[in-house]
Specification:
Strand content: 5-15%
CATH topology: NADH Oxidase
Strand order of the largest sheet: 1-2-4-3
Order of helices and strands: HHEHHHEHEHE
Largest sheet: 4 strands, antiparallel
Distance between the termini: 32 Å
CATH class: Alpha Beta
Oligomer: single chain
CATH superfamily: NADH Oxidase
Helix content: 40-55%
Structural class: alpha+beta
């Protein structure tokens, strides 16, 4: 598989099969992802990988908390600037509509949104959950470093026949995760990630978001 093929196949999968993923495979992907670039070679990321009975316990814990308090815990940072401007607002809205339709939910339907939120915290059925942290003292360059690490990991997963879904929604339970995972003070949760084998029969697999043309984001001085 070429890099181009891996980039083309990679998508945020929101429906996974129950096929297990061996711990050794997860370790191998993370081991190879460590070759990702970082400013000054700081390698500022820390990953928590959860599977097996620990993942079952985490899902159960979050489901109980979600039933009592759907809003979750205070966020450490916002996923989007507010207010969002064009064309960013339109892109986000289009992606949301596509996602709701793929799951058979009406756009912004309350019950549909609640169900999609529940599935998020079930890792969409994936057998592995990953959580990515940074030292709270780092700045924007290190956040970008983590982004490059995430892309490396996701493409390596594709190479292994696996799929992923990065999920910033896990920030809603950052305090609970800190206790559950034993995260030291001073680390900030950037996102979670589902990892597993896609359920190719689910309609959401065919729902691919659009990408802006190169002319919209690239300028040349040649």
């Amino acid at each position: 598989m070429t890099v181009s093929e891996a980039i083309e196949r990679r998508m945020s999968v929101r429906a996974f099969s129950d096929r297990p993923v061996a711990e050794g495979k997860v370790r191998d992907i993370l081991d190879r992802a460590r070759r990702s670039p970082s400013t000054g070679n700081l390698q500022p990321w820390h990953v928590y990988a959860v599977g097996g009975e620990r993942l079952v316990a985490l899902k159960r814990l979050i489901a109980e908390k979600l039933a009592r308090d759907p809003a979750g815990e205070p966020l450490e940072f916002a996923s989007y600037p507010s207010p969002l401007w064009e064309p960013l607002r339109a892109r986000r809205a289009a992606a949301g509509r596509l996602r709701y339709e793929a799951f058979g939910f009406a756009d912004k339907d309350g019950s549909g949104l609640s169900e999609l939120l529940r599935r998020n915290f079930d890792f969409f059925g994936a057998p592995v959950g990953l959580f990515f942290y940074l030292d709270a003292r780092v700045g924007p360059p290190q956040w970008a470093d983590l982004g490059m690490f995430l892309q490396s990991l996701m493409l390596l997963a594709v190479e292994e026949g696996l799929d992923t879904c990065p999920q910033q929604v896990w920030g809603s339970w950052n305090a609970t995760l800190r206790d559950f995972l034993g995260v030291p003070d001073g680390r900030t949760l950037f996102c979670g990630m589902s990892l597993g084998y896609r359920d190719a029969s689910h309609p959401c697999i065919a729902a691919r978001t659009e990408r802006a043309a190169m002319s919209e984001f690239a300028s040349f001085a040649w």
